[in-house]
């Protein structure tokens, strides 16, 4: 799993890292990363667990479909990328 | 003494050095900072952030602004819902359209204002319409349920459908979703269990028991946009503040004019003087000792919301709004189109400061008689506080 460098400033324990986590869904990926970097989940999801409007998650080349429960499945060798969505200002 | 400035792109501290006030970026570079304030009891600095991508976050500095770290974060508890009009739906049936407000799950849209009560008490006003309070110095925050479940907004939606009717409207400051917000929290220094909050758009509410129960305090208020100008609810306070030494003197800059109360917000009196340009605006500041002395930064009424005729001025009263003075010395009187937001005017002793959305920061050291520009090119300014 890789996250945008834009988050490193707020979550320094993730700086420069590619994490490997055990998970079958994107929601589980988020839960596992939260264990490594407490506060991470609330950066990318709201308090109901929904993906924030201006955040994207990709599995490989594909953007996830379920932004509400993050139920998209991941395989053992899936590469998950978390990045800010393009929105200027 | 310092000025704490929250801007669209970071937190700035302004300090006097070699006789001149000097601003410097002190944190949160690139991040929206809605409000910055100092806890008077322990000196901690608190900032209400609005990340473009990552949501609203509380940030705190325990070393005077040298370093900042995420504080305990504010989250709406599971089951917190609020009533809002249904989204327009061209495919909805006629029956659906008549069902009225729908209950929406609350998620944090904005941290808007921070206030301090007794030692260890931190209060935060949010959108949608939440008052979150901490009694442990900000280690944990709880949603104030007395206010969240208030009858004026439909009652308790945690356990059932409530009344199905709300008098709380929304504010464009919610940045998208049209939800109500709490932008003013005025704590009575004599008794921190007494607080006033102001809601856009609903009005002013008061608690006398530390937030367990709340009553509307809108008697005497007049609006100019509802069928009933004297309706109990539906008022649009832009900012409410009280005098520290005489807390029964309360000031309100409202969408529909300037209002003053000398009886603790039990009754309000309209003290606008539109013919002098004293009517519309966002912020109001009151002297710490003399509750009859207050400052405003008027704007051209709601259709324009900018400095009147390109001339920026501060209005000051020393007699509870019976008379007003224009204070213009040192402020631009030509081609000035500054807009001053509700939290961007503050005072401390004889110092008064305000900042505008055009990145100008002005400061007076003689109670407003004369002004100097401290900065011209800051990001749009959201809040100005001394601390």
User: What is the N-to-C order of secondary-structure elements of chain A (H for helix, E for strand)?
Assistant: EHHEEE
Helix share of residues of chain A?
10-25%
Instruction: Supply Rg of chain B.
Output: 20 Å
Indicate the overall shape of chain B. globular
The SS-based structural class of chain A is alpha+beta
The CA-CA distance between the termini of chain B, in Å, is 6 Å
Question: Overview of this structure, please?
Answer:
The complex is a heterodimer of chains A (89) and B (387). Chain A has 89 residues and is α+β, with helices and mostly antiparallel strands. Chain A has a single domain (2-84), classed as Ubiquitin-like (UB roll). Chain A has helices at residues 26-36, 40-44; strands at 2-3, 55-59, 62-63, 80-84. In chain A, strands 1-4-2-3 form a 4-stranded mixed sheet, with no helix packed on it. The longest helix of chain A is centred in the middle third of the chain and has 11 residues, at 26-36. The radius of gyration of chain A is 12 Å and the shape is globular. The termini of chain A are far apart. The model of chain A has no long low-confidence stretch (mean pLDDT 92). With 387 residues, chain B is mainly β. Chain B has a single domain (2-74, 108-386), classed as YVTN repeat-like/Quinoprotein amine dehydrogenase (Methylamine Dehydrogenase, Chain H, 7 Propeller). Helices cover 2% and strands 38% of the residues of chain B. In chain B, the strands form 8 sheets. Chain B has a 4-stranded antiparallel sheet with strand order 3-2-1-30, with no helix packed on it. A 4-stranded antiparallel sheet of chain B has the order 4-5-6-7, with no helix packed on it. In chain B, strands 10-11-12-13 form a 4-stranded antiparallel sheet. In chain B, a hairpin with a 7-residue loop joins strand 18 (237-242) and strand 19. Chain B is globular. The model of chain B has no long low-confidence stretch (mean pLDDT 95). The A-B interface holds A 6-7, 10, 39, 42-44, 46-48, 50, 52, 54-55, 84-85, 87, 89 and B 51-55, 57, 70, 73, 75-76, 105, 107-108.
